[in-house]
Here is the input.
Amino acid sequence: MLKQAFAIFWKDLASELRTRYAINALLMFVVVTLAVIMFALVGETLSPGALTGMLWVVMFFAAMSGLSRSFVAEEERGTSMTLQLLATPTAIYLGKLLFNLLLVLALNIFIVLLFLLTMDQFTVAQIDLFWFVILLGSIGIASATTIIAAIIAKANTKGTLFPVLSFPVILPLLMAGISATKIAVEEPMWDTVWPDLQLLGSYIVVVITISFLLFEFVWKD
Amino acid sequence: MQISATGIGKKFNRRSIFREVDFSVETGEVFGIIGRNGSGKSTLLRIIGGLLSPSAGSISYGINGTDVSVEHLHRVMGYAAPYLTLYEEFSAAENIALYAKIRGLQKGSSDIAALLDRVGLPTDRKDPIRAYSSGMMQRMKLIFSILHEPPLLLLDEPISNLDREGMAVVYDIVAEQKKTGTVIIATNDDEDIAQCDRTLRVEGRA
Ligand SMILES: Nc1ncnc2c1ncn2[C@@H]1O[C@H](COP(=O)(O)OP(=O)(O)OP(=O)(O)O)[C@@H](O)[C@H]1O
Ligand SMILES: [Mg+2]
Here is the structure.
């Protein structure tokens, strides 16, 4: 099963590298958004806390702009049935989750690095906690968007539905993520951040568990 | 592979396509599903293949008396159809290697070349199959369906887009499959029907 999932992951990776289906859209989005933010903030002094909020806004909408592709692409090109004939729903879900995980992680690292490089006012007090929260947040975003993408791939109003349906699902993750990132940025105290980390961790476990149970029904016509 | 279906019916949005379809197929049989355009042949084939749930009735599958569940059907079944789309951004060899890898099979380059050869496709083309002609694509789909040597082969309009030589390839595959397995063909073509031991006519309203 794991082998099947990895084979599907590799297929998605090879296909993405060849077609640039998601990557181009994502990179464009990130660069343009950061440029707009920089122009908007010329001459302003913003606290690192406020910039943290902005960082999460960019990460959220970047995920929204490209992550639905993995399933929508199979549906649009008509290859869902091919995949269905090759592997079990569980393996397919896992393969897609792994791929989205890689994509979100790479994307968020890229966003954060750009943020750190371009925003002088953005200083991080506790860098290891900061990266740990970004890591957890990325896993959370990937697990939530994977199952939502599977659901909307079957719907007719694919593009527009994605952010709308994702927002309530991702809201707890956003709140805990923003709060934990703020702590890492402003006041490096592990005990105040603990509840947020717990929430992030349980969010990931709950979403992935529900996805495993749900995927089979979502995936089949 | 034995298949036995009882009381199969399918509705799309409350519109009934067919109802109360019963049949059974045994190992070594070539079974044809025939009927007018829009009568529900492809729909029935997709239901048999576990790709679509029936609105009524049930199907059971068995290999030498052991039940096979629908979830595991993809392991023992091959499927080729006009509405199937392969991964067009990859080359023929890459596609075959990909199917093998997902299925957990070991296929070296000589196995891949042998498969391409069997259906009469060139073994030296490295470009994406997006550029393949429709007949060549149909031959790729045949490879997709037989790669894992499944006991059950489901073919929807298997000779569509194929020339004489391609038709011979299909009937050769069917004859080979018949020796140890089962074939179900959904078709309107007289030459296909001539290959079948038995046929079932679906009488759906289009
Ligand atoms: N997903 C679907 N949603 C709604 N209706 C569908 C769907 N799939 C098939 N149908 C309808 O079911 C009927 C049977 O279609 P099907 O493709 O099974 O016919 P067929 O016998 O294979 O026809 P052909 O000989 O043209 O291949 C048609 O009226 C078709 O419009
Ligand atoms: Mg048909």
About this structure: The CA atoms of residues 18 and 138 of chain A lie 24 Å apart. The two ends of chain A are 22 Å apart (CA to CA). Chain A has a mean pLDDT of 89.
